[in-house]
Amino acid sequence: MEERYEDTTEQNQQPEPVLLTITEDIRSFIYESSKWTKFLAIVGFVFTGFMILISLSAGSIMSSMNSIAGAQNPYAAMGTGFLTVLFLVTAAIYFYPSFILFKFSNAAKQAVLYGDQDSLSIAMGKLKSFFKFWGILLIVLLGFYALAIVTAIIGAIGAANMG
């Protein structure tokens, strides 16, 4: 029979908590950041509203352009629907980070003014979500750009071989 010896000292030890000190400088930086992020969030909400208004009026804009040009475009209805959906999707994409910034701003201000640790934790979580959102969106856009470049290269090679 084989005897086993287990080292229980490592299993019973809890990691020591890391304590961070928030100095007055850091508090003022967070407070000032909360003001700027609230401003950016409100501007984002306003632009989101404009995008929604433009998307809902895309049909009348397209018909006005057709009447000015004097010709009826048979694809105008399809283009109007596409523009409406495109602006609504863009508005939704723009609304989310504005909302996250607004939540960060309120939580950060609460944390600084009242020394509320839970609010600071919430604020940092919102800030992480904001950057994570833009990072994922950037990865998706870079993927679309790479796909467009590859498609253009393949199209150029195909056109060169035909001619």
β-strand number: 0
Overall mean pLDDT stands at 87
Question: Which parts are unreliable, with pLDDT below 50 for 5 consecutive residues or more?
Answer: none
* Count of discrete alpha- or pi-helical segments spanning 4 or more residues: 5
Overall shape: it is: flat
Oligomer state of the chains in this structure: single chain
Q: What proportion of the residues form beta strands (DSSP E)?
A: under 5%
H-E order: HHHHH
Largest sheet: none
End-to-end distance? 82 Å
* Rounded radius of gyration (Å): 27 Å
Structural class by secondary-structure content: mainly alpha
Tell me what you see in this structure.
Helix 2 (about 25-55) packs antiparallel against helix 4, helix 3 crosses helix 4 (about 75-115) and helix 4 (about 75-115) packs antiparallel against helix 5. The mean pLDDT is about 85. The protein has a domain at about 25-135. The longest helix is centred in the last third of the chain and has 46 residues, at about 115-160. Helix content is about 80%, strand content about 0%. With about 160 residues, it is mainly α.
Which descriptors would you attach to this protein?
5 helices, 82% helix, 0% strand, 163 residues, mainly alpha, single chain
Short description:
By secondary structure, the chain is an all-alpha fold. The chain has five helices and no strands.
